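Quick one, tokens below. Sequence please?
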């Protein structure tokens, strides 16, 4: 894997390493007459630190040349290194207020209570007791990967952001991450879209209790709105820049419609979210993959429940079953 690739108008795509199957997250360095703006530094690991230091050395970028660190969303693979990068560069970290609230909930002072509540939630949806300790360790293990945490300034959807001397609109799209931001310039057809739309990867859509009551609905509605943007090149959070924006969104919409249909057909018999997840994704998932697969399954089941296609049943834990024809 190359450390970085120069894209049009001097945009540098930095492939910051990740210890997950995704392999890397794209940071972007964008030059302007004040220095460099950096989008999404990555996850805080020793490998990611070394990677950025090597990229800065290769491009002769001094830490003080980075004047802003901008985050598309709060997920640890994007936010995690922001505090370290801020300490090195002294640059402000700009992100959405909704995203920052999530970081504090998951990795702030109350992170143990939050992890406990998430574990109870998963157990209530059928996660076996034998996996609880692993899941708890997984949830708590992210704190060190996002520390030190940065001081942040909020940026809002509807405002504009200067990227490379050009004015970009800040758009908000939830579903993959609550309050996820995208940066779009209609005049040039360029969008920095984070993880909301990616080539080859269907962005994870997770239900988390107390955040978004119907994240799949948020995701599908936002995709329908974003599909009509005139995009010439899209810079995603993972994989490589792509050009088939509307077509890719059409594929993602189709994927979820098919998956909803799959769940609906399976739920002639009652099943828990955990059982449905195993039926769809199989038995060979790491705890990391299981957590995302289970949360994604829940996003689909809750969407179907809210659409009155399935209903809750079950006594010891929550199960779902297809609804008869509702009057
Ligand atoms: Zn993400
Ligand atoms: Zn990501």
């Amino acid at each position: 894997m190359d450390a970085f690739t120069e894209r049009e108008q001097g945009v540098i795509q930095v492939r910051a390493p990740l210890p997950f199957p995704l392999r890397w997250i794209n940071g972007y360095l964008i030059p302007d007459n004040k220095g460099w703006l950096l989008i999404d530094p990555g996850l805080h690991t020793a490998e990611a630190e070394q990677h950025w230091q090597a990229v800065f050395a290769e491009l002769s970028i001094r830490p003080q040349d980075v004047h802003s660190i901008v985050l598309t969303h709060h997920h640890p693979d994007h936010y995690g290194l922001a505090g370290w990068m801020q300490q090195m560069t002294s640059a402000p970290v700009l992100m959405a207020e909704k995203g920052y609230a999530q970081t504090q909930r998951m990795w702030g002072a109350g992170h143990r209570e939050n992890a406990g509540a998430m574990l109870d939630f998963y157990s209530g949806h059928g996660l076996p007791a034998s996996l609880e300790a692993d899941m708890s360790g997984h949830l708590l293990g992210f704190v060190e990967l996002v520390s030190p945490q940065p001081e942040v300034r909020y940026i809002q959807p509807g405002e504009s952001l200067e990227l490379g001397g050009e004015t970009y609109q800040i758009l908000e799209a939830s579903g993959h991450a609550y309050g996820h931001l995208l940066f779009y310039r209609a005049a040039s057809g360029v969008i920095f879209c984070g993880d909301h739309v990616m080539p080859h990867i269907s962005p994870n859509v997770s239900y988390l209790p107390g955040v978004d009551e119907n994240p799949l609905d948020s995701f599908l509605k936002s995709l329908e709105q974003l599909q009509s943007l005139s995009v010439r090149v899209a810079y995603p959070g993972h994989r490589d820049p792509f050009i088939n924006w509307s077509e890719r969104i059409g594929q993602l919409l189709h994927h979820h419609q098919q998956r909803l249909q799959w769940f609906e057909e399976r739920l002639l018999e009652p099943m828990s979210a955990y059982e449905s997840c195993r039926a769809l994704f199989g038995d060979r998932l790491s705890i990391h993959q299981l957590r995302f697969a289970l949360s994604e399954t829940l996003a689909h089941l809750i969407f179907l429940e809210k659409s009155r296609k399935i209903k809750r049943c079950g006594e010891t834990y929550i199960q779902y079953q297809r609804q008869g024809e509702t009057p």
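The mean pLDDT is 96. The pocket of zinc ion (ligand 2) is lined by residues 25, 75, 77-78, 195, 237-238 (CB under 6 Å).
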